[in-house]
Amino acid sequence: MKGQRTSLAKITANRQKALKSTQARRREGEGGAKHNAVKHALLAKSTLIRTGAYREGRTEFERLFARLREDFEPQGALEEILVERLAVSYWRLRRVLRYEVAEIQSEGWRRT
């Protein structure tokens, strides 16, 4: 259907539908986010190194996770899971890069 233009009425209708789909439908839906802190704290505990010289701060991870949730605004369980996986994957990648730099800078690193 190349070349066809969307009518103004269709654009307006689509905008109205979009507004409805992003709002809480029930009062319970508005309070659903109150459990996020507990859920995300559990995720942070399982993701972070909590002991030893390389301990990681939960606050920094939670801040990263909150920023990603704000940017992506996940709708539904699947999107929430994907944002969680993105946060954990990014966190672990940063960890690997930090350790790589530390190893290169340490006396244990030798040029061959």
Can you give a write-up of this model?
This protein has helices spanning 8-21, 27-31, 36-47, 58-72, 76-105. It starts with 7 loop residues before the first helix and ends in a 7-residue tail after the last helix. By secondary structure, the chain is an all-alpha fold. The protein is built from 5 helices and no strands. The mean pLDDT is 76. α3 packs across α4 (58-72) and α4 crosses α5 (76-105). The chain has a domain at 34-105.
Order of helices and strands: HHHHH
Summing up helix and strand content along with how strands pair, one would put the structural category as mainly alpha
Helix content: 55-70%
* Tally of DSSP β-strands: 0
Low-confidence stretches: none
- Mass-distribution shape: elongated
Please report the number of helical segments.
5
Gyration radius, rounded: 22 Å
User: Span from first to last CA?
Assistant: 62 Å
* Biggest sheet statistics: none
> Averaging pLDDT over every residue, what do you get?
76
Q: What's the arrangement of secondary structure elements?
A:
Elements: H1 8-21, H2 27-31, H3 36-47, H4 58-72, H5 76-105
Descriptors for this entry?
112 residues, mainly alpha, elongated
What is this entry, summarized?
The chain has helices spanning 8-21, 27-31, 36-47, 58-72, 76-105. By secondary structure, it is an all-alpha fold. It has a domain at 34-105.
